[in-house]
Amino acid sequence: MTLQLGDTAPDFEAETTEGRIRFHDWIGDSWAVMFSHPKDFTPVCTTELGYMARIKPEFDRRGVKIIGLSVDPVEAHQKWKADIAETQGAEPTYPMIGDTDLAVSKLYGMLPAGAGETSEGRTAMDNQTVRNVFVIGPDKKIKLILVYPMTTGRNFDEVLRVIDSMQLTAKHRVATPVNWMQGEDVIIVPSVSDDEAKTIYPDGWQTLKPYLRIVRQPKD
Fold first, then answer.
1. 139 is catalytic
2. Verdict on whether the full-model pTM lies above 0.90
3. Domain 13-152 is found in CATH 3.40.30.10
């Protein structure tokens, strides 16, 4: 199954470190980030889970829930959490999915249908494609997909930056330019006419080209 931006995130039931969940019900009216790992007790993923634990308040502040996934069982996740706390200085306080039958990994296109039905005997290299980040909106649509190699730690500050951009777009009908950071100028989207923009932005904007109109970031 190949997922694309705008697709409905597949729903599923799974065991997690915080009990059994149905994914769409767990998301509720929030945004959500699901980030996956090829196996427990792997070095790069250990650093990622610890960093997410440290910056979880930033996701909370934006109304975003976070959830991890690894093909190993929940019992192994609980032991891994202790290692993460010891080496990274923070223990995950968000749920971690145990995908022992590989069902969620297959559902999200991270493993082929012929990968089997158990995580037993599989190595991190067997599961190296289970290194994705999915950002999902309150409408349960997929807003962002990132895929990383096993040897490269993910940049979760960038995930926060993209979420800031998407939430701003959803509320104010603006786009964000290259390397945009919170508080910087934004772009009026083409679907907003000049006449409508005069109402929205009475203080005006800078027109570089008819299709490129720069304006101060709207305040919430």
1. yes
2. yes
3. yes
